[in-house]
Design goal:
- Helices cover 29% and strands 35% of the residues.
- The protein has 12 helices and 18 strands.
- The strands form 4 sheets. A 7-stranded mixed β-sheet has the order 14-13-12-15-16-18-17, sandwiched between helices. Strands 2-5-1-4-3 form a 5-stranded antiparallel β-sheet. The protein has a 4-stranded mixed β-sheet with strand order 6-7-8-9.
- Strand 10 and strand 11 form a beta hairpin.
- The radius of gyration is 28 Å and the shape is elongated.
- The N and C termini lie far apart (82 Å).
- The chain binds S-adenosylmethionine.
Length: 350
Amino acid sequence: MNGSKKILREAVKVHRCRAEELRRRLIAMGTLDESLKPFEENGFVFFPLKRLEEVHGLVEELGGELTQALFEVRARRPRSLKEYLAGKLPSSILDKLPSSYDIIGDLILVDLNDELRSYAREIGEALLRLHPRARMVLVKGETTGDYRIRDVEVVAGSGSTETIYREHGCIYKLDLRRVFFNPRLSGERLRIARQVAAGERVLDMFAGVGPFSILIAKLQPSARIVAVEINPDAYKYLLENLKLNKVEDRVTPVLGDAREVLENSYEEHDRVIMDLPYRSLEFLDVGLRACRRRGIIHLYMVSRSLEEASRIVADKALELKHVVEIEFGREVMEVAPRRSIFALDLRKIS
Ligand SMILES: C[S@@+](CC[C@H](N)C(=O)[O-])C[C@H]1O[C@@H](n2cnc3c(N)ncnc32)[C@H](O)[C@@H]1O
């Protein structure tokens, strides 16, 4: 015998052939009690009601009958991390649980402070139950080195850290342990890609696994893009992602240091993307050189404010004997207390 809890409730009994229509109309009227499970018996379906008023006309119209019946209570799935962990972690901890985390393909990436780290396994397992399609939960560590790779610790689930991530209709294969990837930049990628006009020549100086280049190639098929990347693993995924997204004919991948690559090239571009926030200024000279006059540079940099970032960039350009006009700027995300990544769109005047 099924031991689940049952409750006696006002109900509508209707022939199976009218059941779907009745269900839809009860939901629309807000009278179906969705905490209980409808059931079928001898060709008739029983729906639990929250209240009897309003339903008489409908019941008559569909040849149904008002009655009472015993309904099974639906097991309600917790809807938040806090609900999952209620009763399992101290309440002081429940209030400090992370309110956001990144889902990258079938991996979940979460930031936990020192206090929450002692509960990392419980939090990881709760996240897997909350997101049944996720396979593994990783806790964020530091992002270091030229390749900007994040240290991650697996706290729940198993398998490899390679995954397939979908963004704006593109597919990216990547391994979080070997390459940089941040889904929080997806808005920036779309903002830039939408600006690219037909036939533009675009340079993606720090391409990673290709999310700027590939989205541009998809949205603007006549654009020609050069994507430079120094990390051999990221470059390998870039090549694979160009194929997966069928844009190999529009994007030229280059493995190497952007400075060396550009110092040996005289090609001018209409648009240059400089997504290396901690060091982009060091490359501004080659970025400016690779950009045609009146072309655009999308520069990402870490600073305390938009004003400070704009001033530093304009000064640096002058020091390099160039004039730039800052056409647009915005804060993209906070990376430390009072430090954020800013996006600046620079028009090269001279
Ligand atoms: C912040 S990540 C951005 C990646 C990509 N734009 C994205 O949105 O995922 C910077 C990338 O630049 C690469 N990189 C770092 N120094 C470089 C250099 N000197 N030349 C070319 N690529 C470089 C890193 O390996 C990393 O993949």
